[in-house]
Amino acid sequence: MDAPDPAWIVAQRLASARALRSACSATHLTRRREGFGWTVRPAAGSVLASPRVADWNPEPDYFHHWVRDSAIVLRAVPLAIRADPPARGFWRRFVGDFIDFSLAISDPARRGPAENPLRAACRSGLAPFLRPDAELAALAGDAWLQEPRVAPDGTSDLEQWSRPQDDGPALRASALMAVLPEVPEAAGTQAHALIARDIAHVLRVAGRPCIGPWEEEPPRRTTFTLLAQWDALDRAGHQAAADRLAGLIETAADPATGGWRESIEAPEGGLDSATCLAILYAGRDQGPFALTATRTRATAAGLERIFAGLYPINRDRAVPAIGRFAGDVYCGGNPWYPVTLGFAELHYRIAAQTGERDAFARAEAWMALIQMVAPDPGPLPEQFDRASGAPASCLDLAWSAAAFLAAAEAREAAVQAMGR
Q: Residue 95 to residues 13, 50, 57, 223: CA-CA distances in angstroms?
């Protein structure tokens, strides 16, 4: 299959819009974690990374509000409206609620609990997964903006997790700046207060080592996070700070591939698909981080070479299914829907800008690959098996839905620009 079925794209686009909606302001859901004695009901404006109830047996528990994932979902709201116009009223309310929820969870005046409230009811075997009391008690002021996630009811994350993470506030500020012109009814004092809070935090922490987008140790200066911070500061008009970050990113140039390394600390040839996603989210049409820039293309090409030989599903395929990085073992270390769809979107956008037929053909092949592994429109998983293509890991990921909407929108733009 060299090209996707247009009817499938239409159907999956609607299905993705509805899957995205099911993860947002899911106030009708209740999540009971029996082992912790923890009941959570999502608040209006929250975004579930996944609405599925799972307990790592083996499907992961993603019933949390991740700041990074929520920003990616927010960016897709106008795309969801175009895919499902009758839902516009829901999405208008959601953006306003999202702003209020985000202000509440990052409020510098609130404090974390003095001790973990789950400790008394937690089963003994799960106690090591509880967050330490001292860490919770220290939550105040700017520390809230270093939290990668919160419970979807807005309370503190009570489980052990990798911190600090600095990509979330930057991505949220950029997404909100991009979305407000398309949802103008959400613009106002609250929206600008959230942007100002996020940007002030980015200015404080930009360029420091932290946990990267895949949430794996050790802290380092990942190119994904640096690009997200650069994008936010550049959009907000903090040019001097953005220029300093751009200079820092330049030190991640990779002499082995001509692309960008995973981080400043990464060895030569150490690539990560998150770098391409950060460039995609920034969406520049000129400069060193442009979609068509030489290092962008070299990073993508280097990743294609890595994954072409890594996954059995890629044998004799025009374009390879794309994972996160070489050596990934999380939930089997398979290809990911968000990054494979991201590669499709990237090449559609390159085609729209340049008219390159090869870029369009490659994007079509990636979309056809997604159709092959997800032929029945519906919620999209996080991963698909590296050999069989079967769904793997989380089976309904909001990030995957957002990625499909973005790829389908990019395809439409490319078709129009190329007169196809």
A: 20, 18, 34, 29
Residue 74: is it exposed, middle or buried by C-beta count within 10 angstroms (0-12/13-18/19+)?
buried
Q: Tell me the backbone φ, ψ of residue 392, rounded to 5 degrees.
A: -145, 155
Beta-strand runs (E) in 4-104:
31-33, 38-40, 65-66
Closest by alpha carbon to 147, among 207, 113, 106? 106
The DSSP string of 252-284 is TB-TTTSSB-SBTTSPTT---HHHHHHHHHH--
d(CA 259, CA 328): 20
Residue 174: partners with Cβ closer than 8 Å, 6 or more residues away: 71, 75, 228, 231, 232, 235, 281, 282
**Cβ proximity of 27 and 44 under 8 Å:** yes
Residue reference for tokens 């995205």: 20
Block mean pLDDT (10 aa), the chain, length 420 = 91 98 98 96 98 95 98 98 98 98 98 96 93 97 98 98 97 98 95 98 98 97 98 98 98 98 98 98 98 98 97 96 97 98 98 97 98 98 98 98 98 93
Please name which of 258, 255, 153, 145 lies closest in space to residue 210, comparing C-alpha atoms: 145
Cα 270 to Cα 257: distance, rounded to the nearest angstrom: 9
Q: What is the pTM for the complete model shown?
A: 0.97
